[in-house]
Amino acid sequence: MRRPSRRSGVLLAALALPAALAATPKQAQAEATPAPHASRAPRLTTSAGELTLTVPPGSAGPGYRLRVTTGQLALTTRRSGTTVLGTPTDGTGALRFRTAGAWQHATRVTGWTWKNGTLTLTAATTTPGATVEARITPAADRYQLDWQVRGTAPERLGLAYDLESAGHWYGHGEAQTPDGGPGTAQPWPLDSGQVVHPGFGPASYYMIDPFWYTSAGTGLRVDTGQVMDVAINQGKDGLGRFDVASADTYRATVFVESTPLDVYRDYVGIVGKPAKSDATYRQYAEPVWNSWAQFYTHVDQAKLLDYAQDLHDAGITGHALQLDDKWESNYGNMTFDARAYPDPKAMSDRIHGLGFDFGLWVTLWINLDSDQYRYAADHGYLLKDAADTTKPCTVTWWNGTAGIVDLGNPDAKAWYESRLTSLMSAYGVDGLKFDTRFFDEKCAPHEGYQPSDYQRLGAQLADEYDLQGVGVRVHWDAAAHRAGFVTRQVDKGTGWNSLRASVTQNLAISTIGYPFVATDMIGGSSGRPAPTKEVLVRWAQSAALMPLMYASTSPVDTIDPTTGKKVVYDAETTALYREAIARHTRLAPYLWDQVQHTLKTGDPIMRPLFFDFPHDEATYTIEDEWMLGPAVLAAPQLTDATSRPVHLPPGKWYDVAHGKTLQGDRTLPIYATPLGTTPIFVKLGAEGADKALRALR
Fold first, then answer.
1. pLDDT for 362-374, tens place per residue?
2. Contact 248, 153 (CB under 8 A)
3. Which residues of the chain fall below pLDDT 50?
4. In sequence order, what E strands does 618-674 have?
5. Is pTM beyond 0.85 here?
6. Could you give phi then psi for residue 167, rounded to 5 degrees?
């Protein structure tokens, strides 16, 4: 892992001020005495209209230059003579702030100092009487950019970049887009579409982190616990805008590395890598079956047992069967609806008898009509309203209006956990699927906590239970990274667009530090019409080449939620789905090796081709292929076509479908993909290739 240099950054004296700065009230200051090994330390030089910080190359980084334009404050990062990241130079402003409902920005640099390894800038702004003070602290493979506004009280602070300056952009996590993201669209790279994501914050239901990286080997991390408004290429304007809803100091880390993988590793060095995987070997090897997309809330004991029996009789394996939303009499009661579930213990026993573990969907949200709501409110177990902390906070969700158990209150957490323990013990429940969020911005955190702390509190709660390979949706906080949860995606639709989004979304999630990924339920959900045979089969084939398989729509039969009628897939559907599961199970020894590697390094298991082949330019825009560990290249069919192009990076590759070796560094323009064929290639000589070949041949 590359670490930032801890050298002080003492430099040679700066050159004379340019004329534009010489008349300013502040005079530039520079340290006069070079430190030992000063030639290896960052140094500052000046010329007409700009300041340049030069960080020499070394074992910890490739070296770079940061040019600060002073006539109109702009920041340009260059490596090896090439621009790799830059803010706008057209007058739209690099450092922006909103005051009185209007956006303003820094303009001319009016003063600067270079002292103790930090360049401090003062700049005028488009608001009379307001100034920006920015501090830039360079290190070997990154620089810290902290800045604030003085002379006015801004509502938001923002940082803007010219997207094209850094090539292509990635990261972010599940992205809101004008064309249906994240449910039916996830642009890859991000700049190939539009991301318009207000409400980008630690309490969001989406799996997101304030981290972005680029094909040029640069990256941005915004260190904040506040809600952001992120726009990437909005209206196809070519800009990335990263705004924070706070007047506090804007803190950003800008990474400068040689490759995107190096940037990712630097980021993981900050937020942490998984200390363990919360999923077991069997949970990697076999799918989990969940009732949601099969029945939605129209589920009962008889339907669930019929579902389990059909899967068993068809030889469609799985390690667990989970009863999703709606089993409670009222949300938050933690009691079975007696009409729909006359004997839940017998139901659990029958599911166990068929070879499945039994799991339940749970939430911390207690609806106002639940008989537990009044008790929780009277005992102070619910989050308080941010506007009036004398009353509980109420939030509206897809199942009504609710209060949220306050995990910051030890008594509330103990009460909630005791109820879970009693429920699991009484009915033989092996594991849980935690859903909804652990906090909402309408609520006030418990005394001594910040809103962002609830990601950590939620992670700590979930970590006490078997999550059965579906994990939990916590993010942003280091505890979420280090817990090693499986990450399941936000609900998808049931069409081809959602299948493609499930792939690029996994690439996005796994490369912001959550490496144990699964798609949304195979075949999709979101209350859409049941998937066609082709979508269901292709989704299963795709998921078989991901770390985990998360399933719901039964290939034996299912219910179309839009008509309420039974959908029966043909025998070929069942056979091909079963074949996909078998392939995934055979890959389990290889996958488990990748899990162990991730625990050592933090590297993602499912990753874009350019992580492994950074010099292959074609890989940076491929959205339908990925590496599964170092040896397996997956290129499943994600459309209704009968062929597809396949790009093979440099090296020798074994074509699994055709049983032959191919030379890489080329694109196969037409690779036939009848429904039973999934393009898979093994990189000969790569670590784990022998184990992968044994599984896939």
1. 999 999 999 999 9
2. no
3. 1-38
4. 626-628, 632-634, 643-648, 652-655, 660-663, 666-672
5. yes
6. 85, -120
